[in-house]
Amino acid sequence: MNQLRILGVSIKGMMSICKVYRDAIAFFDGRGATRDEVHAMWTLDIIERNVIARRVKRAGYRDIVEAPGFDPEKHPRIAEEAADDISMEDELWAEILPWTAEIHGAQKVTLRVMELWQGMPREEFRRHLDPYVTITEQPEASYTSEGVAPPEELTYFWRVGESDDYRFIWGADAGKLARADGAKSMIAIDVSAVLRSVWNSPEGGASA
């Protein structure tokens, strides 16, 4: 927050940003989920959305196949996709199974993770995921204070209109998404580096 203060963000603006991080931590902590389990649920979320997207596409192919005049010999791939009648449960499990392997370490998908995911409100999960992952990112031992983070590791903050409400996002397309939201100016901060600096300082580490 001190970085934002130096760059001119108002107290009210900083409080709105703090609230987003606080709410994200409270959301997952309130469900007893660890950071690694949140990452595993992130994997499940990606799988679930991909499977749903494929099934929607497959349903569209069925409409094409059932239309008068469709020739399966001219469009074999569409006919093959439309004929695939795998159940949602089987399709999901086929995608999830590789992520239950020990190779994924603490972030593998376990029965507990799947139980947590079953009761997870999807929209709330997606809203809180980015700030939670950003704020709980672990410091890398190789980091040096002179290092420059690549754009996809920066968190972009921008103000919405003339209000003191700030939005933020991180990732490779963050700057583009901020501009699409109407941002006239942005602040890009390496949040992980700021946290790392706090954790590694004698006085900051104790309060963090």
Chain-wise SSE layout:
Layout: H1 2-6, H2 11-29, H3 35-66, H4 76-83, H5 88-96, H6 111-118, H7 122-135, E1 155-159, E2 166-170, H8 174-180, E3 187-189, H9 191-200, H10 202-207
Antiparallel strand pairs: 1-2, 1-3
Produce a short descriptive summary.
The chain is 57% helix and 6% strand.
The total beta strand count reads: 3
Distance between the termini: 13 Å
User: What is the radius of gyration?
Assistant: 22 Å
Helical residue percent band:
55-70%
SSE topology string: HHHHHHHEEHEHH
- DSSP strand content: 5-15%
- Spans of at least 5 consecutive residues with low confidence: 138-144, 203-208
Mean pLDDT: 78
Count of alpha and pi helical runs: 10
User: Biggest β-sheet: count, sense, barrel?
Assistant: 3 strands, antiparallel
Structural class: mainly alpha
Main β-sheet, spatial strand arrangement: 2-1-3
Q: Based on CA inertia axes, which overall geometry fits?
A: globular
Structure characterization notes:
- This protein is mostly helical.
- Helices cover about 55% and strands about 5% of the residues.
- It is built from 10 helices and 3 strands.
- The chain has helices at about 1-5, 10-30, 35-65, 75-85, 90-95, 110-120, 120-135, 175-180, 190-200, 200-205, and strands at about 155-160, 165-170, 185-190.
- A 3-stranded antiparallel beta sheet has the order 2-1-3, with helices on both faces.
- Strand 1 (about 155-160) and strand 2 (about 165-170) form a beta hairpin.
- Helix 2 packs across helix 7 (about 120-135), helix 3 (about 35-65) packs across helix 4 and helix 3 (about 35-65) crosses helix 5 (about 90-95).
- The protein is globular.
- Residues about 140-145 and about 205-208 have low confidence and may be disordered.
